[in-house]
Design brief:
The complex is a heterodimer of chains A (about 220) and B (about 80). By secondary structure, chain A is of the alpha/beta class. Helix content of chain A is about 20%, strand content about 25%. In chain A, the strands form two sheets. In chain A, strands 2-1-3-4-11-10-9-6-7 form a nine-stranded mixed β-sheet, with helices on both faces. Chain B has one domain: Phosphoribosylformylglycinamidine synthase subunit PurS (Mth169, Chain: A, 2-Layer Sandwich), CATH 3.30.1280.10. The chains are: A alpha/beta (about 220), B alpha+beta (about 80).
Chain lengths: ~220, ~80
């Protein structure tokens, strides 16, 4: 399978994601944001970081870059799109995912390993996980507080478009296990066709036992299937 | 023609920064403080003579980039 990682000025998880993809045998290409042509890809990844220094709003400037028109076209024709952290913020700014990421409720940049629960394992991104499996995954963000309107929230629930929710070690989803104030503890969502996933936690940081754990690996092995 | 644009979080959206500023002022002894909401201010100079078309352009700038309409409101004023 072929993957493309879009790189913006200020992206800083682009090489980590490339390592994760290549480990799973993806043929990966890095694409600079000024490019106007995307190579044919089965998966496009918008990586984490601080594109354009988070000027205006996180992801707002990157969301208007030239290559994004191509990403939107690819998404509409069914290509798989994964946005992690700043990538999730960029996807909401482009309109490919609805809702937005507000400043963390406690106003602090949070960098720690948290637990998330797999809410839907019947997707191309999550089929190697068990339903309700608890993963330990790193988060590192200042604007990760997912917010959307009531109507969209109802749709997310009804159509099983919530990918992950923050939980505690036992899988309890409550206010104590919500690190950033996200509505309904939401850590990641799909679009209605489930070919786009946006998530704040960093699965690409959890692919190696030596430096962390392997809880993120199955996301990439789900995709390669 | 110059315009100012003020962008603020919608009424229902939590504004933690505004809240912290408010609490700090209360802690500093400021009395009769009912609320503070923090926002952004832009000054925009457009090369137009006609005010209606200039305002239309500024409105387009707001909608396309400056404002996230899901969470923010904006006001345009001529300066």
């Amino acid at each position: 399978m072929k993957s493309s990682v879009i790189v913006f000025p200020g992206s800083n998880c682009d090489r980590d994601i490339a390592v994760a993809l290549e480990k799973m045998q993806f043929k990966n290409t890095m694409i600079w944001h000024k490019e106007t042509v995307l190579p044919k890809s089965d998966l496009i990844v918008i990586p984490g970081g601080f594109s354009y220094g988070d000027y205006l709003r996180s992801g707002a400037i990157a969301g208007k870059s030239k290559i994004i028109d191509e990403v939107i076209k690819a998404a509409n024709s069914g290509c798989l799109i994964l946005g992690i952290c700043n990538g999730f913020q960029i996807l909401t700014e482009t309109g490919l995912l609805r809702g937005t990421l507000l400043r963390n409720k406690n106003l602090k940049f949070i960098n720690k390993d948290v637990r998330i629960r797999v809410m839907n394992n019947d997707t191309k991104f999550s089929n190697k996980y068990k339903k309700d499996q608890i993963l330990k995954i790193n988060i590192a963000h200042n604007e990760g507080n997912f917010f959307t309107d009531r109507k969209h929230l109802e749709e997310l629930k009804k159509d099983e478009l919530i990918a992950f929710k923050y939980c505690d070690e036992k899988g309890n989803i409550n206010e104590e296990s919500n690190p950033n104030g996200s509505i309904d503890n939401i850590a990641g969502i799909f679009n209605s066709k489930k070919n786009i996933l946006g998530m704040m936690p960093h699965p690409e940081r959890m692919i190696d036992e030596v430096i962390s754990n392997k809880d993120g690996l199955n996301l990439f092995s789900s995709l390669i299937n | 023609m110059k315009f100012s644009v003020t962008v603020t979080l919608k009424k229902d959206v939590l504004d933690p920064q505004g809240k912290v500023v408010q609490n700090t002022l209360i802690n500093m002894g400021m009395k009769n403080l009912k609320g503070i909401r923090q926002g952004k201010h832009f000054e925009i100079d457009v090369d137009e003579i006609d005010q209606v078309s200039a305002e239309k352009k500024v409105d387009e700038i707001c909608k396309k980039l400056l404002v996230n309409l899901i969470i923010e409101d904006y006001k345009i004023n001529k300066i």
